[in-house]
Specification:
The chain has 308 residues and is mainly alpha-helical. The chain has 14 helices and two strands. A two-stranded antiparallel ribbon has the order 1-2. The radius of gyration is 23 Å and the shape is elongated.
Amino acid sequence: MNTRFLLVTVCGAALLAGCATTTETERPTASRVTSISPARPDSVGAMASAPDATAPAATVASAATPATAATATGTAPAVVADAKAVEAALVADRPDPTAPSAREASEARTKEKKMTNADYKLMLATADQSLKLNPKSPQALLQKAKANSYLKNYQEALPLYAQAIKYARNNPDAYYNRGVNRMMMKQYKAASTDFSAAIKYRPEDKESLFGRGVARMQMYQYKPAVGDFTRAIKLDSTFADAWEYRGISYASFDRLKEARHDLEYAAKLNPDAAKSLRRYVGNDGQPTPVAEKKPAGKPAAKPAARRR
């Protein structure tokens, strides 16, 4: 039996939230992808701001737009050289040379998740100031889009991501963050396309692979999702969420041995994953029973009344 699973909504910036089973004709109501970084099922997404913000607001302003730094001091030779390198990469459709590495991007997302709404509003204001100087700055457009995503203004963020990509279509961060934004809007096919673009320009980004895997799960594409989670695990063998969601995906097409292996290992890495182990595999090694949906048809005729 090919059981379908329901992925419960995710808030903020952690991927996928509480998991539950559903019938084959039902589809997931949301993904647990969070705005700027994945997390595990049953946890509140990372896109939601944490109360114990550790990233000072000053870091937001300093990170906003490196392109505008030269306007105050003149155009330095190094800036000109960088601009030429960026343009050459754009023309050749190579990854943006100014984009951070996968590790650096992950670290930045972690810091951003811990910021407060006040920090996100400062990020927004800083980006607006930069855009007054350069309305076509892809860095400033991306910062403004991300700030809106963190503030849950998902619809407002979409055109900003589109503009950022228009001027820097080889920037993996723009695609990743738009993918997460679209996940929050339940636009799973579009989100999967964005994550694919992010992977094209930064193949070693485990979070983009995880994001695409989650998007595929939402569309019942469990076997391709397994491939994405497997690649993410190869990049980071301690990526508990990838182990957990690969296990859930295996369970969806009756690969119960593999499902149990992955979910047990995920539980070792993250005790919260034990919930998925119990739900999708069960203590006896069998999947948790799911109520089958009866085929639609005419109601059964009532038995004739007996004559007395």
